[in-house]
Amino acid sequence: MDNHMRKVAIITRHSVPNYGSFLQALATQRMIEELSLIPTIIDYRRHDESPSALINQYCHDHKNPLYSLYYNTFWRYSHSKIEKVLERERRKYLKCSERVYVDSLSNIYGKYDLYLTGSDQVWNVVGSGKTKEIDGAYFWDGLSEDSKVISYSASFGDSDLRADDYNRCKNWLRKYDYISVREDTGVKLLNRMGYRAEQVLDPTMVIEKDFWEKLCQKSTLRLKNQFVLVYNLHSNSNMKQFLMEEFKNSGFDVVSITTTFRKGLGKNIFCPEIADFLWLFKNASCVYADSFHAIAFSIIFNTPFVSTLPKEYSTRLESILRLFHLNNCIADVISEKGWKEGRINWAYVNSVLEQEKDKSIKWLSDSVKSLYL
Question: What is the pTM of this model?
Answer without folding.
Answer: 0.93
